[in-house]
Amino acid sequence: QVQVVESGGGVVQPGGSLRLSCTTSGLTFDDHSMGWFRQGPGKEREGVSCISRAGGKHIYADFVKGRFTTSRDNAKNTHYLEMNSLEPEDTAMYYCAAGRRNYDCSSFLSRPASNWTESWGQGTQVTVSS
């Protein structure tokens, strides 16, 4: 059974930091580009970041570029998102996504989330508030 499990969300003040983790099992981890999506109230699920299978290519949405960093550890089947300088607009449910084998980070921002993704986690809530 495929499992994708996010952790690390919480409540932080503006300007604060969080590190999200995504642990996986039941899939060949290094066969997948890995992405983070988020969905805030009344919004569509939107792409945040993507990292390639070997970890060498990173893609970021403009609204997080320079603030967030994605990484992965293929030996641990784990995917990360380091979030710095958090803003209230970053408040959302954050989802870890394993990309379909025929898609990579080049298509991450141009395709709908459900189209790009093979497997989802349940999400972890990030709330940025004073």
